[in-house]
Design a protein that fits this description.
Blueprint: H1 8-15, E1 24-31, E2 39-45, E3 49-55, E4 63-68, H2 71-84, E5 104-111, E6 114-120, H3 126-154, H4 159-171, H5 182-189, H6 196-210
Helix pairs in contact: 1-2, 2-3, 3-4, 4-6, 5-6
Length: 217
């Protein structure tokens, strides 16, 4: 997976209520040719706006999607980057254990003339592991939303199945920002053209999110 991270000074600025430098960017990349989704890449700027790129199956076609993360998520990224001293650390992050069969992650941080990229398939560094999981969670929620929105347009009968998949990802803590789902789920729940079972399911997920059932730690 590829990922770009902030240095300590930028994270400190965020903690003091200041925005990170505008030339800061974050990237995350995941690669595994054996997986149904063999390529995932996320690029995020200091303003929280990002782009998701991924492929599916044996197709080389890249699916693109724009998104914007919450300020709390950006704060969390900055905190993890600062805690790991990513830009100045010499740590390679790859553990002795090899999990290459599960795919490779690449993390990159850019700020001004500073840039650092690391690649690993398994790490025991808790900050870097959490950072990678956070970016993967952003990708998961955006892919789930993409699938649901596509089904709403072309295959409404698939919506209940896709909501089941989304709920499973929420239950397994694979979604980075559950609250980001509410607006789109509410639109679905209020859409009279959707199957009733799907509308009711969307309402149940909304209620669970609002109750804090899927709040990330």
């Amino acid at each position: 997976m590829l990922l770009a991270v902030l240095p300590v000074t930028a994270a400190s600025n965020r903690a003091n209520g200041q925005s990170p430098p505008p030339d800061t960017s974050f990237s995350y990349k995941f690669e595994n040719r054996r997986f149904y989704i063999p390529l995932i890449q996320i690029d995020i700027g200091a303003d929280g706006k990002g782009q998701l790129h991924f492929t599916r199956g044996e197709s080389d076609d890249v699916i693109d999607r724009n998104f914007k993360i919450l300020s709390s998520t950006m704060d969390r990224i900055n905190r993890l980057v600062a805690a790991s001293a990513f830009l100045t650390s010499k740590e390679e992050y790859q553990a002795k254990r090899d999990f290459s069969h599960l795919g490779w992650m690449t993390i990159t941080v850019r700020q001004g003339e500073q840039e650092r990229t690391v690649r690993f398939n398994y790490t025991t560094n808790t900050d870097i592991s959490e950072l990678a999981d956070l970016f993967r969670g952003i990708a998961t929620q955006e892919i789930d939303l993409f699938d649901i929105e596509l089904a709403v347009q072309h295959q409404p009968l698939d919506v209940p199945r896709l909501l089941d998949a989304l709920e499973s990802d929420l239950r397994l803590d694979r979604v980075a920002e559950p609250e980001q789902l509410i607006r789109r789920l509410r639109e679905l729940a209020n859409d009279d053209t959707m199957p009733l079972i799907g509308r009711n399911h969307a309402n149940r997920i909304i209620k669970d999110i609002e109750k804090g059932k899927y709040r990330r730690k």
